[in-house]
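Need residues for this backbone.
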């Protein structure tokens, strides 16, 4: 039997103490220990971006991040984007309005990366968005709609913060 470690993550604003195997990834900890099933396992090798979450505001591939690395960190998963009243985050809403998904499997990772892309200031042009979203793959090819959604969300968020 493997040794277990104690850690506490702030996930979507709530503290979660856990006793886990030190080899558990953040991707596996979210659904298995916290019942948060929105983050998707795509390639499990850090190549597709489906598992993207934010750790202390920075996007990370949760399949390549040990849960232990997030000890004491603020983790935001797709479930943590909407407001307490249930209102969608502007990026989520713009993805819906622009039909920026088809099968939807990559959508949580796309949205989390898009939130970071906008926050990082990389939503100034289609080419810039393509570059900074290039780590997120969409097997259905919804890329033009994803770019439109990100541009719309970035514009709306800029107006809100002005």
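Answer:
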């Amino acid at each position: 039997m493997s040794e277990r470690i104690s850690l506490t993550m702030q996930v979507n604003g709530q503290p979660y103490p856990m006793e886990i195997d030190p080899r558990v990834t953040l991707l596996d900890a979210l659904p298995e220990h916290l019942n948060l099933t929105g983050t998707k396992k795509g390639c499990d090798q850090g190549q597709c971006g489906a598992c993207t979450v934010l750790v202390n505001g920075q996007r990370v591939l949760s399949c390549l991040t040990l849960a232990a690395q997030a000890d004491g960190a603020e983790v935001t998963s797709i479930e943590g984007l909407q407001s307490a009243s249930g209102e969608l985050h502007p990026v989520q809403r713009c993805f819906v309005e622009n039909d920026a998904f088809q099968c939807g499997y990559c959508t949580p990772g796309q949205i989390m990366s898009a939130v970071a892309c906008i926050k990082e200031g990389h939503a100034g042009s289609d080419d810039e968005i393509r570059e900074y979203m290039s780590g997120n793959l969409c097997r259905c090819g919804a890329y033009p709609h994803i770019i439109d959604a990100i541009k719309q969300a970035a514009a709306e968020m800029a107006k809100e913060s002005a």
